[in-house]
Design a protein that fits this description.
Length: about 180
């Protein structure tokens, strides 16, 4: 099945990782790919330390990609990592590692920012939509309607109140 968590509220990645931990608890093999992130989050650190059937890929950089600034080196690095993962690494993993769950964190935003081609993303995701044995989760502030329309579950995460507005940004243990 294809699950999508999108919107401007906090909790999309947390929901995806929570599902990944639930799946690992059931003995599933899991692949986690974080687009546009540097990999210094507590979730990534924990998954790498545990002896579980999980493969973690960090496809972002420390520096964030500015929307529309596609000539910047950081944008090119993010594009290359994302394309190589979707085109070469993920298909190989699907055959050799055989995960039952694939988490594609921030893929929606990467497509929205044109760092990942929408046609490539939808081609990859079609394998999961409606599949009772193979699952994927896509997160992102923005997710294209083509992806939401093919998804089996779509949850919009909406901000009601956020501590960012009080100046608390990237709180360790809560946000990273």
């Amino acid at each position: 099945m294809l699950l999508v968590y999108y919107g401007k509220g906090k909790g999309k990645t947390t929901a995806a990782y929570g599902t990944a931990f639930r799946a690992l608890g059931r003995g599933w093999r899991v692949v986690v790919a974080s687009f546009m992130k540097s990999g210094d989050s507590g979730e990534v650190k924990l998954l790498r330390e545990l002896k579980l059937p999980v493969r973690v890929y960090v496809l972002g950089t420390v520096e964030f990609v500015k929307p529309g600034d596609y000539e910047a080196e950081v944008a090119s690095l993010n594009m290359v990592k994302a394309y190589a993962f979707l085109k070469h690494v993920l298909p190989r993993l699907m055959k050799s590692f055989r995960p039952k769950l694939v988490v594609l964190d921030e893929l929606g935003l990467a497509v929205h920012l044109a760092l990942v081609d929408e046609a490539t993303a939808t081609r990859v995701l079609k394998k999961f939509a409606g599949n009772k044995e193979l699952h994927a989760i896509v997160t992102g502030r923005y997710v294209p309607s083509t992806v939401k329309n093919m998804a089996d579950l779509v949850s919009e995460v909406r901000e009601v109140r956020h501590y960012f507005r009080k100046g608390f940004v990237n709180v360790e243990g809560l946000d990273r």
